[in-house]
């Protein structure tokens, strides 16, 4: 309703010439001088204040294979990093040497299946993160953004991960 | 664009169903303005950006709160000249992350075929830094608020420092990373 009134007013002011229309567009203009950080801070304060859920909404939004691959990349990355940090911390704190602790574990005589499984469990996140990492690097080169390509490369990553993990566990 | 042209045409039609000539003029003006603003949104002509200080046109009058997009075009852009000295730090960081990833990728076969101390220390450095930068991105994505961000990054820095120290200690006083993996897999 008010839209129509405004337009009627503007029409009466003879706003049919293009020059005047440009004038209308820039009558009130403000220079933009914010940094990306400031913009992001404003975004987060506003949206947390309004109590909005994050996007994509993880329980309502339908999960897709690329989404799962993406969060798995992050998950394996965090897990591997934590593992390395734990290992480094242990190296600083524990009194004995690495071969000592390795022999300790070997003396506990776990079955061969358990050993094979733990090798698989170690190799799997490394392999996945590596192959998906290569997929990411290809995206960074601008390749493989079409949706079918995204799915295809994703399935290749999964296949390579399983094959490599099984292969490494067998070694 | 097509969507709200038709919705506004129908809105105008609802307001004055009887007065066809007046309606016709209104619709023509609306259509013209929408076409102009669609050109502006694409930022096509240099006419609109006369000076280097890029301006963001706001909605013209308070009355148009209902349909600001009809009269004005909101263009979010800042030329790099406006940003003062314009730091390339973020961009260089991104590139550094990619280069490091490729280096780490290359180190893996080298570690397999040449398990020497030089590779052990390179692996320690590359793994720690790659993990540090990766966790840094996780912090950036999920931690908000100046103080929390500072605290999270400080904690991360401490963790990465201890990790690197521990790996170097392991390389120096113990068997070293390459040998450790080989031993682990030998059983």
What order do the helices and strands come in, and which of them pair?
The complex is a heterodimer of chains A (171) and B (187).
Chain A: H1 2-12, H2 18-25, E1 29-31, H3 36-49, H4 65-93, H5 98-107, H6 112-140, H7 147-170
Helix pairs in contact in A: 4-6, 6-7
Chain B: H1 2-15, H2 20-42, E1 55-57, H3 68-71, H4 89-113, H5 117-142, H6 146-173, H7 177-186
CATH class of the largest domain in chain B: Mainly Alpha
Q: Please tally the helical runs of chain B, counting DSSP H or I stretches of 4 or more residues.
A: 7
Number of domains of chain B: 2
Given the C-alpha coordinates, what overall shape of chain A results?
Answer: extended
Specify the CATH homologous superfamily of the largest domain in chain B.
Answer: Fumarate reductase/succinate dehydrogenase, transmembrane subunit
Secondary structure category of chain A: mainly alpha
Distance between the first and last residues' Cα of chain B: 66 Å
Q: Specify the biggest β-sheet of chain A.
A: none
Name the poorly predicted regions of chain B. 2-15, 40-55
Order of helices and strands of chain A: HHEHHHHH
Round the mean pLDDT of chain B to the nearest integer and report it: 76
CATH topology of the largest domain in chain B: 3 helical TM bundles of succinate and fumarate reductases
Beta-strand percent range of chain A: under 5%
How much helix, percentage-wise, in residues of chain B? 55-70%
Q: List the uncertain runs of chain A.
A: 14-18, 20-24
What does this structure look like?
The complex is a heterodimer of chains A (171) and B (187). Chain A is an all-alpha fold and 171 residues long. Chain A has seven helices and one strand, in the order ααβααααα. Chain A has helices at 2-12, 18-25, 36-49, 65-93, 98-107, 112-140, 147-170; one strand at 29-31. In chain A, helix 6 runs antiparallel to helix 7 (147-170). Chain B has two domains: 3-72, no CATH class; 87-186, 3 helical TM bundles of succinate and fumarate reductases (Up-down Bundle). In chain B, helix 1 packs antiparallel against helix 2 (20-42). At the A-B interface, helix 1, helix 2, strand 1, helix 3 and helix 4 of A face helix 1, helix 2, strand 1, helix 4 and helix 5 of B. Chain A: One of its GO terms (biological process) is mitochondrial electron transport, succinate to ubiquinone. Chain A: It is found in: Membrane. Chain A: The chain crosses the membrane at residues 77-94, 114-131, 152-170. Chain A: It is a multi-pass membrane protein. Chain A: Pathway: Carbohydrate metabolism; tricarboxylic acid cycle.
């Amino acid at each position: 309703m008010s839209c129509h009134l405004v337009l009627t007013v503007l029409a009466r002011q003879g706003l049919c010439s293009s020059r005047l229309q440009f004038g209308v567009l820039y009558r009130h203009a403000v220079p933009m001088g914010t940094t990306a950080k400031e913009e992001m801070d404003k975004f987060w304060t506003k949206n947390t204040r309004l109590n909005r859920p994050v996007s994509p909404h993880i329980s309502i939004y339908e999960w897709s294979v690329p989404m799962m691959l993406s969060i798995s990349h992050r998950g394996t990355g965090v897990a591997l990093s934590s593992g390395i940090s734990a290992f480094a911390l242990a190296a600083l704190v524990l009194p004995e040497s690495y071969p000592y602790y390795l022999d300790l574990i070997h003396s506990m005589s776990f079955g061969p299946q358990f050993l094979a499984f733990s090798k698989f469990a170690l190799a799997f996140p490394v392999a996945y993160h590596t192959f998906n990492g290569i997929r990411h690097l290809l995206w960074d080169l601008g390749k493989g953004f079409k949706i079918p390509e995204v799915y295809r490369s994703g399935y290749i990553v999964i296949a390579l991960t399983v094959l490599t993990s099984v292969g490494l566990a067998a070694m | 664009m097509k969507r709200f042209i038709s919705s506004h045409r129908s809105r105008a039609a609802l307001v004055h169903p009887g007065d066809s000539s007046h309606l016709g003029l209104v619709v023509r003006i609306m259509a013209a303005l929408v076409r102009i603003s669609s050109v502006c949104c694409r930022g096509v002509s240099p006419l609109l950006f006369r000076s280097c200080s890029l301006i963001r046109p706001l909605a013209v009058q308070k009355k148009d709160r209902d349909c600001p997009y009809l009269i004005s075009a909101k263009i979010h852009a800042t030329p790099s000249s406006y940003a003062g000295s314009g730091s390339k730090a973020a961009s260089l960081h991104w590139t550094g992350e990619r280069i490091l990833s490729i280096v780490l990728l290359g180190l893996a076969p080298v570690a397999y075929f040449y398990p020497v101390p030089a590779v052990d220390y390179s692996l320690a450095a590359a793994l720690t830094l790659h993990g540090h930068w990766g966790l840094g991105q996780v912090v950036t994505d999920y931690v908000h608020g100046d103080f929390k961000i500072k605290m999270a990054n400080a904690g991360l820095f401490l963790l990465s420092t201890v990790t690197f120290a521990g790996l170097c200690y392991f390389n120096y006083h113990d068997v070293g990373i390459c040998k450790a993996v080989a031993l682990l897999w030998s059983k």
